[in-house]
Amino acid sequence: MTPEVFFDQLENHLSKELPLVVYRKPMKSGLRALLQNTDTLYEVKNFKESGFVFAPFDSQSRKVLIQSSEMLELASYSPKKFEPEEYLDIDLKNVGNKDHHLRLVQNAVSSIKQGHLKKVVLSRILKGQATMKPLSLFQRLLALYSNAFCYLFYHPKVGLWLGATPEILLQVKNNRLTTMSLAGTKPYVNGQEPEWGEKEILEQKYVTEYIEEALKNEISELNSGSLESARSGKLWHLRTKISGNIENQNLEGVLEKLHPTPAVCGLPKLESKAFILENEGYDRQFYTGYLGELNMKQEKMRSSRRANQENQVYRSINRFTELFVNLRCMQLVKDQALIYVGGGITAGSDPENEWDETVLKSKTMSSIL
């Protein structure tokens, strides 16, 4: 299949207002699309289902599932290059003014200093004009962010979302689970390694400790890697990889403990989530939720080791799950783009600096408009 045929089929499916998702995994060149031939809204009930899950920030809300009627795959795709600087000078209007966000951050810092919270992640929305077709915007994401999970999701009863997220929530292959803690943000400067301050290192430490505590009774042989700097497009983050063996295929239990992580919510989880819902002033919907392949089948061809079957192979069918946190995303509503951005607030946070960080993060999505 050629790229032209691949995208024509997606465009045709969208024109019928039928559900689909198309995505590319980090550091991969191939594209995969799941097409659903009815507008039925399926939901994940127990994480035994198979398909593509699109889950909201609020774990009490419905988790949407696209069940594949048809799967399209493009083995390799090289998107057309473009210079994002040409598109950065656009009129982005803030939903809620700057003063509101500065007061919100200051209230969070006060609450932290009073001992009610250790950390809370606060966000806001920017509005921009989206005059290009959604699939054209998706192709620009592919061109800019090769080391992110890039996706376009559409369901007529949910809406149209696209994004480029650097953060894996979890990956399960056979019984092996891998996740990561990701926190801290610095702009990428060509040829320079980032210099991390106490605020970013402390924020990262909170996230790592939370994940380790949350998973200690859910997985065995828990192991945390070393702290490292990870680049995502024009940004740097601090990252720690964490792995172990999942017990009894209890994916629902693991996700209940993990989501929302301190990287998108805060600590303690219940208190920070309550602060967000009471003070942020808008509904995040699927921003800082998670998305990805759920219990998908993977076929492997393996050579037989039997001496009399040296040239024969056999098929091994495995199920795997790979979920990503829905960061760096936008929602398209007619010709308007709603860009979601946020940042982690700790006792040492400065409101003006936190505002500047959201501006920096917004460029991931605003650069494609």
UniProtKB/TrEMBL annotation:
Ranges where the Chorismate-utilising enzyme C-terminal domain occurs: 98-361
InterPro entries associated with the record: ADC_synthase, Chorismate_C
Gene3D superfamilies for this protein: Anthranilate synthase
Protein name: Isochorismate synthase
Organism ancestry: Bacteria, Pseudomonadati, Bacteroidota, Flavobacteriia, Flavobacteriales
